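Objective 1b. Sequence-to-structure analysis of Polyprenol-phosphate-mannose--protein mannosyltransferase.
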Amino acid sequence: MFAGSCPPAPPKFKWTRLDSYTWAIIALFAILTRFIGLSSATASGTPVFDEKHYVPQAWDMVRSWINPVTGGIESNPGYGLVVHPPLAKQIEALGEWVFGYSPLGWRVMAALFGTLTIFGIMAITRRLSGSTVITFIAGILAVADGVLLVSSRFGMLDIFQVLFIVLAAWALIRDHQQMHHRIHNHVRDNPKPMEFGPRFGFRWWRFSSGIFLGLALSVKWSGLYYIAFFGLLSVFLDMWLRKRYGVRRYIAGTFWFDVFPALASLVLVPVLLYIWSWRAWFASETSVYRHAAEDGTIPGSSFLQILPDSIAGWLHYHISVLEFHGSLTTSSGHSHPWDSKPWSWLVAGRPILYFSSTDISCEIGGSCRRMIYLFGTPAIWWLTVPVIIWALWSLIIRKNRGYLVPLVAFAAGFLPWLAAYDRQMYFFYATALVPFTIVLLALACGELWQRGTKMESGLTRGSIIVVVYVAVVLTMFLIFSPLFYGYVIPDSVYESLMWLPSWR
């Protein structure tokens, strides 16, 4: 028999009509905020900021389209070596294929993915909290965050990776909850001592998480961090389940039944998908370094020469990209006016200027300007450190496991950059952090919601604080909206929005 009584059954989730209403409201505002005025900010009709790299690369793919499955290749020789995997540009190319080489064409897929990211954040919150209200709060925060908004309105890479990371975390949560039900039902139906515990069977949600991780890796190499963190998290969650349900040799059981299938789903599947994302490179005879071994680009003494030509060229490409990224260090003389370090991301201390048009004549007289920053809504970003501390305390001291996955996901997007602090970095690297900050904030609001004395209105003091906080977030979103959308504003208004010297 199980020692003592069987642990309580894990909760089940039921979709309600209120869920449909709240999700529809968030969907409406997500679409409006992401798509309205999407084409307005250009450099005389051309891409701005780092769009100048990725938009032409996506257009290369449209023009060199091989077939519907393979797609096209990116060359963009004017900017040298293409230093990121091809998936995000392949997705952007779909928009350009439909709408042409135009601002709408190169931004429409980013806006779509930005909208879906909000739904992903809500899905995670719904699964962790079980609350429609808290999920609605998460949706409001996600709509009102400046980083998620601006990332969704430019043809760059980050929002594509962010959606895949969010979906990978959501699928991992679904997998853990499904395994919780499986082991609970097994122990309930077979109340006898377990040496190693049961086999969980094939795990479609974990397999799905591996697919999303592979897609994230195929956008940027930083997806590797999430593969490592989520892989370890999955194994430790399995170990926790086996221990909780009285498995005597739960470590051995986890190693025997869970570790190798986890490696297959969360490591092998992402690697295979990453290789698949390069299919157009392998299919084309004119890809960069496609015949590097044969044309003498690879030295004759290199170990790559023993490999088939296509594989040698592909690996040489990756070595060249790794050398490029490794050279972008402050100590080697590389600097940028909008460079920022990871610790500044925790308070959105150094935003990035994406678009600037100054010395515009105002209708009311004087000088106006249009400025668009990748800029975090302060009421969200300035609570990053406090909510992380609260989540750690709740997880470690109060044993509230609902905070675990968003904490690990945040760590995967933050801690590895601390080890490479000498590297040139930018605030858009932090885009993947804010979805999980929002989840943590929403969960904290959920704990606060029922706290305190109930007032005559039926609301508790805690729920009033939450309502006020959400109102502050929305107010700040409106106040800083000129920096998100690039409204024409007087210079004096711009100066009033520059609260910190590091924002300039």
